Each structure stands twice: as C-alpha cells, then as structure tokens.
C-alpha cells in the first residue's frame, strides 16, 4: 500500500476552508447589501477598480477566490461520495478542473484591471 | 428498591438456521438503577437462554459489551435504563458482521489494529542494565488521553465512512498509531506512516466527528486524525518539494 | 461449528437519515454547494469589473433580482455556518500543549472567533459601511 498523494488536494482545501471562514461571510454581507439596494461605497466602480488595480489588492482577491473555489470543489467531491455517487474519479476531475478554470479566469480578469 | 417493567426489542440472528435477522420483544422486570446489560442478563437467566451477547467486566473497562441501543453505539454496561423510555431497541454494533444475535465479528478491526503497530518501537534499543526509558509528566500528557482506548469499537459503529468504505483503517486503530507516534520513547512513526498516510488511512476520514462523540473512554479520535492529516501533509511536502527531503 | 456471519450493507444514498449527528455533518458539507456557487458569482463579478463601469453597474443591478436576494441570503447562512464549524474544529486539529497542560479548546476556537470579528469589522469599515 503506497502513501497517498492526497495532501496535494487537501492542503489547499484546508487553506481554502480557513479563507472561506474568515473572509467569505463579510464579502457576502457586502454583496447582500448591494442586492438589497444599499450598495456599500467600497463596491462602487471607482473604489473597487482602484482596489483591484493595486498589486496587493489583486493578490488578495485572487487568493480568496482561488482558495475558496478549490476548497468548495474538494468538499463537494466528498459530499457527492457521501450522497452515494461512486464515480469519484470523474467527479474529482470535473470539480478540480472547474476550480482551476475559475482561478485562471479570475487571474486573467484581474490582470486586465 | 424500585422495580420497573422494561420492554426490550432485541435483534436475533441464528447463523445455522436464519438468512435474515429479526427483532424479538422481551418484557422483563428490572431494578430502577440497572443498565441494559443487567436486563439482558435477566432475560438470559429467566426467559430465554438462547440469547447471545458478549460481556465481561460490567464496569466500562473491558470494552466487550458494545451494542447499538436505540441506534446509538453504547457499552450496554454503561447504558442506564432510567435514561430510556418505552421500548428499548438493542442491536449488534453497526458496520460489523453479525456472528449471532448481538455478537459481532471483530476480525476486521483486529487485523487493522495489528497493521498500525500499536506498541513502542524504541528509537534505540538499550540493554536493561542501562535502566528504564524515562519520561517527563509533560511528555506523558502529550499522548495520555489516546492511551485510554479500550478497543470497544463503538467509534467504528459510529463512523459512517467506515460503514461506506470498509477498507478504511478507522478511528481507534489510527488513534492508537497517533498515541505511539506521540510517545517520546517511540521511534516507529516512519513505519506507521506506511499505513497511516495511505488512502485507507487518515485520508478516508472526512471529519464527521461521530467517533469522539460516542467514545466511552473520552478519547478524541477525530482530533488525532486531523492532527495526523496535517503532519502527513507536511511529510508529503518534505518528501516531494524539498530537495533531498526524501530519506 | 462453521461461521455464517450476517453482513448488513449501509444504504449508500440514505445513511445520513439514521442519526441526527449525520444530518448535522451533511449540512456542514452542503455549505460547499453555496460557497462554490458564490465563488462562481465572484469570478463573474471580476469579469464585469474588468469590462468597465457600465458592465459593473449592470452587475450590481442584476444582484437586486428577487432570486439573487434569496441566493445571497442562503450564501450568508452557509458561509456563517461554515465559519462556525471551521472555528469549532480548530481546537481539534491544532491542540496546543504548554508544559503539562493543554490550552483549553474553547480558548483556541474563541481566539479564531475574535480574529474573525475584528477582520470582518475592518473589512466593513474599509468598504465604507460605517
């Protein structure tokens, strides 16, 4: 029985889980406010564009989106198995590929800003 | 002393004649302060001598009398009748093959327990003349709670991942691996990692946490397994990403 | 005497109905569906932001649809539930021993909650909410 390469997917899952816990609730609060018609000043085009235009801002946004995507993709993979879907290799390939595609896309969009 | 008429619904299975298990209802007069195991003993003595179950110490030490009581893995010597109302449903431990009635086959767990080498593998052997291997209280506390395991297998009956994937090494065996890994006198972690860090090892765990909730000895297998996931991940990084890290 | 043990299969698609703690576990896992979907929304948002002011205003306007409001609310519930379960788990994954004693688990989780509260307030402040 060989040692598993699971850490490759688990470490970013654990990091992403931490990022989701610390960052996503407050980000949802901001977009929820916007959805209710009270757009916070920080979500105005000028301010947000300036934040995303800054190198550090790009890094923060990319880190949050990429790690959260990966973490939820990994947890969703386990959830599919728990719900009785036994095609784990297929599910894992699709979900991880989607997470990587989303991360690359956000990197491209951020570099355009 | 107060008495109470207790109704038990017990799973029965006779391997010589049955192809399926069925429930049998017993009514038995019990003392108020009895446990489920006392009720079973009374049934066996007075009502039905064919009823089979395991027990030994009657004091939550030996770990032989684990059963599902109203769907919860419990030591039947530790399940007080006064905590239950109505009919009490008693079944053999979940996720293990039923040998007969409430007796399950522990073979799978025993085999896995052996694989994790749950004993001290000394860092360096020294002759008896050099004296004992000493340990500070702090070094003892590091692993003490994990050494409280009584091998009762309640955590396996509680763990859905073991039920779904029987190859999973499982909570108690992995926790005992952790117990010896954490021991200052031990040098066997590398050998145990060959079992712990496999797919069937810690990576089958999804941190349901049921194991720790049902443990009658207050061991925290869920904690041990999460710690081992972190250390196994650090191992992986050292082995694959740091030049010369693979020893 | 020959052995003829009875194997009881675990129902693979409905096992979590067998105990409330399994339902609690599954609800924690299901948060990933909402968080995942919300991340996709964030990626779309970044695309809109990179496409100029008009596109961004359109994105903000689209957020106001009733379906979006419901979605945002569900994501908020999922994100807070994820955070609570995650911080509660930190004491299990990272116990800290000082001398003979272990730091009380609630202190480890509590420190995470405190850091979470501070970070959230700072973000809200920077975003001009107050």
What would your notes on this structure say?
The complex is a heterotrimer of chains A (113), B (247) and C (130). With 113 residues, chain A is mostly helical. Chain A is built from 4 helices and no strands. Chain A has a single domain (9-112), classed as Fumarate reductase/succinate dehydrogenase, transmembrane subunit (3 helical TM bundles of succinate and fumarate reductases, Up-down Bundle), CATH 1.20.1300. Chain B has 247 residues and is of the alpha+beta class. Chain B folds into 2 domains: 3-104, Ubiquitin-like (UB roll) (Roll); 107-241, Alpha-helical ferredoxin (Fumarate Reductase Iron-sulfur Protein, Chain B, domain 2, Orthogonal Bundle). The longest helix of chain B has 21 residues, at 221-241. Chain B is elongated and about 70 Å long. The model of chain B has no long low-confidence stretch (mean pLDDT 96). In chain C, strand 1 and strand 2 form a beta hairpin. Chains in contact: A-B, A-C, B-C. Chains A and C meet through helix 1, helix 2, helix 3 and helix 4 of A and helix 1, helix 2, helix 3 and helix 4 of C.
SSE inventory with pairings:
The complex is a heterotrimer of chains A (113), B (247) and C (130).
Chain A: H1 7-35, H2 45-53, H3 55-82, H4 88-112
Chain B: E1 3-12, E2 22-31, H1 36-47, E3 66-69, E4 72-75, E5 88-92, E6 98-100, E7 103-104, H2 107-115, H3 137-143, H4 154-158, H5 160-164, H6 171-181, H7 189-196, H8 210-214, H9 221-241
Parallel strand pairs in B: 1-5
Antiparallel strand pairs in B: 1-2, 3-4, 3-5, 6-7
Chain C: H1 20-50, H2 53-62, H3 66-93, E1 97-98, E2 101-102, H4 105-126
Antiparallel strand pairs in C: 1-2
Helix pairs in contact in C: 1-2, 1-3, 3-4
């Amino acid at each position: 029985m060989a040692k598993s390469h699971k850490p490759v997917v688990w470490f970013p899952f654990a990091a992403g889980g931490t990022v989701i816990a610390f960052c996503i609730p407050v980000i949802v609060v901001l977009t929820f406010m916007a959805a209710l018609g009270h757009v916070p000043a920080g979500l105005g085009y000028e301010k947000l564009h300036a934040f995303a235009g800054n190198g550090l801002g790009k890094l923060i946004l990319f880190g949050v989106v990429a790690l959260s995507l990966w973490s939820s993709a990994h947890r969703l993979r386990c959830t599919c198995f728990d719900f009785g879907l036994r095609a784990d290799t297929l599910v894992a390939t699709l979900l991880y590929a989607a997470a990587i595609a989303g991360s690359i896309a956000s990197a491209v969009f951020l570099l355009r800003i | 002393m107060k008495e109470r008429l207790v109704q038990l619904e017990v799973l029965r299975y006779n391997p010589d004649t049955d192809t399926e298990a069925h429930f049998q209802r017993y009514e038995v007069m019990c003392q108020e302060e009895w446990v489920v195991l006392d009720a079973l003993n009374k049934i066996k003595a007075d009502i039905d001598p064919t009823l089979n179950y395991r027990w030994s110490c009657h004091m939550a030490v030996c770990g032989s009398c684990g059963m599902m009581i109203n769907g919860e893995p419990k030591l039947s010597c530790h399940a007080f009748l006064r905590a239950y109302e109505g009919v009490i449903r008693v079944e053999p431990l979940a996720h293990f093959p039923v040998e007969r009635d409430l007796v399950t086959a522990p073979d799978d767990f025993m085999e896995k327990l052996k694989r994790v080498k749950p004993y001290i593998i000394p860092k360096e052997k020294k002759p008896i003349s050099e004296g004992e291997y000493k340990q500070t209280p702090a070094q003892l506390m590091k692993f003490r709670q994990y050494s409280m395991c009584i091998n009762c297998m309640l955590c396996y009956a509680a763990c859905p991942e073991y039920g779904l994937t029987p190859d999973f090494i499982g909570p108690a065996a992995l926790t005992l691996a952790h117990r010896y890994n954490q021991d200052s006198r031990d040098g066997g972690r590398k050998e145990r990692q060959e079992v712990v860090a496999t797919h069937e090892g810690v990576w089958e765990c999804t941190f349901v946490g049921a194991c720790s909730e049902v443990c009658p000895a207050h061991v925290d297998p869920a904690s041990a397994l999460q710690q081992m996931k972190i250390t196994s991940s650090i191992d992986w990084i050292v082995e694959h990403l740091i030049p010369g890290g693979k020893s | 005497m020959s052995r003829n043990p009875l194997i009881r299969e675990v129902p693979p698609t409905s096992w979590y109905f067998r105990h409330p703690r399994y339902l609690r576990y599954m609800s924690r896992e299901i948060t990933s569906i909402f968080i995942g979907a919300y991340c996709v929304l964030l990626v779309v948002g970044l695309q809109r932001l990179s496409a100029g002011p008009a596109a961004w205003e359109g994105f903000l306007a689209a957020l106001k649809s009733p379906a979006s409001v419901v979605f945002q609310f569900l994501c908020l519930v999922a994100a807070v539930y994820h955070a609570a379960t995650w911080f509660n788990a930190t004491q299990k994954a990272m116990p800290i021993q000082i001398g003979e004693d272990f730091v009380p688990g609630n202190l480890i989780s509590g420190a995470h909650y405190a850091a979470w509260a501070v970070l959230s307030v700072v973000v809200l402040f920077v975003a001009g909410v107050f």
